[in-house]
Amino acid sequence: MKYDVTIIGSGPGGYVAAIRCAQLGMKTALIEKYPTLGGTCLNVGCIPSKAMLDSSEHYHNAVHNFKTHGIDVKGDIQVNLKQMIERKNGVVKQTCDGIDFLMKKNKIDVFKGVGSFENKNRIKVSGEKELFIDTEKVIIATGSKPASLPGIDIDKKRIITSTEALNLTEVPKQMLIIGGGVIGLELGSVYARLGAKVSVIEYTSAIIPTMDGALSKELQRVLRKQGFDFYFNHKVKTAKTKGKEVVVTADNEKGEEVTFTGDYCLISVGRKPYTDGLGLEHIGLKTDERGRIETDAHLETAVKGVYAIGDVVKGAMLAHKAEEEGVFVAETVAGQKPHIHYHLIPGVVYTWPEVAGVGYTEEELKKAGRAIKTGQFPMRALGRARASMDIDGFVKVIADAQTDEVLGVHMIGPRVADLIAEAVTAMEFRASAEDIARMSHAHPTYAEAVKEAALAATANRALHV
């Protein structure tokens, strides 16, 4: 079997690369070691976590907000976690089945098994039966796995990763979360809404530390209202299971040893590239100190004809970043001149309120000594936000002090995961704050906050504050 391109890994980067290669006329093969396509994102990441977030938000609103809206629910409202997880599994199946359909539609040959290099043009697939694929080009898209810490043994029962957190059989009474990043806060939100007491133990001095500091402060304030406890500047040393209890020991900012107990402990300290079993040594490829495969500006590795994308290369571990890279490599192989503006790949946290940002943070710009101006507009000043009872949060626009070019947009509020696309579009066209401020935004909408924040950045011209 001979192919123009073979992709190893069927996550968002891999399957999108396969589709684009097929669209461009290449005979394409896709190798996946798990029974279903879609990788971490579709099976145990983005899609199932959003399904759980939506279900838990419905429950939270039924308990806390329906009465205010004039909806009286008679009797106790109960959490049916089994049904919630069954619905989540249905969403996952439907989405993964959709990828199967796309592979057939685009005439992409799918092979189930572990793909490994024999040499740069021959891939062994070890599945139910062993077979070999000859290929002109290879795209490595094998993704990542949850990372851990020294002194912690993840037993997948009480000390768990995000994968197990999506399939618990009970709502925790006390959930400990090690790590205040995106995954921990999202899954913590699920179980906090369902009644768990959530404690976040974070090594740094803030949650979502890579995002704009204003977002971190606001999200922390809102999550505290939702029942979260935060313990910052804590270095976790051990996490051990004792019966149905987990005991975590850590050193606090004073160097004192402190202890936390809960019935579940979610380890959420990031993810690490997954290249096990690829046989990189057979083609002379090595990974860097963080386990990543090094590539050039075209995402080609040191071995000509072998490319790598997504979580196994440098950059943010985001599904949409991997998708962009999959298209980029396919078009590069086809002789086109594609482009990715890495600085304009947005980041999102799917808590409620949602959090999103793109471009430079204020901290980054100040550190670089850049002269900037900022405009900020609160969600509570919007009629649409008041109508939906979603008044927490704001939109912040950062622009160059001289040119007025928008350098960063950061937002926390209802549906900002969708709203951030407006900022990305504007910044891709190098819009000024005044450009956004002069565009008509429908009323009443959440998007008006973007216009108002841009007005605030333009000589403090916001209209509704």
Task: Explain what you see.
- By secondary structure, this protein is of the alpha/beta class.
- The chain has 3 domains: 2-146 and 272-342, FAD/NAD(P)-binding domain; 159-269, FAD/NAD(P)-binding domain; 353-457, 2-Layer Sandwich (Enolase-like, domain 1), CATH 3.30.390.30.
- 31% of the residues lie in helices and 25% in strands.
- It has 13 helices and 22 strands.
- It has helices spanning 12-23, 39-44, 46-64, 81-105, 162-165, 182-193, 213-225, 319-333, 362-367, 383-388, 416-428, 433-437, 448-457, and strands at residues 2-8, 28-32, 109-112, 114-119, 122-126, 130-140, 144-146, 159-160, 174-178, 197-201, 229-231, 235-242, 245-251, 257-262, 264-267, 271-273, 306-308, 347-349, 354-359, 372-378, 394-400, 406-413.
- Strands 1, 2, 3, 4, 5, 6 and 17 form a 7-stranded mixed sheet that branches. A 5-stranded parallel sheet has the order 8-15-9-10-11.
- Helix 1 packs parallel to helix 8, helix 3 packs antiparallel against helix 4 and helix 3 packs parallel to helix 6 (182-193).
- It is globular, with a radius of gyration of 24 Å.
Question: Keyphrases for this structure?
Answer:
single chain, 465 residues, alpha/beta, FAD/NAD(P)-binding domain, Enolase-like, domain 1, five-stranded parallel beta sheet
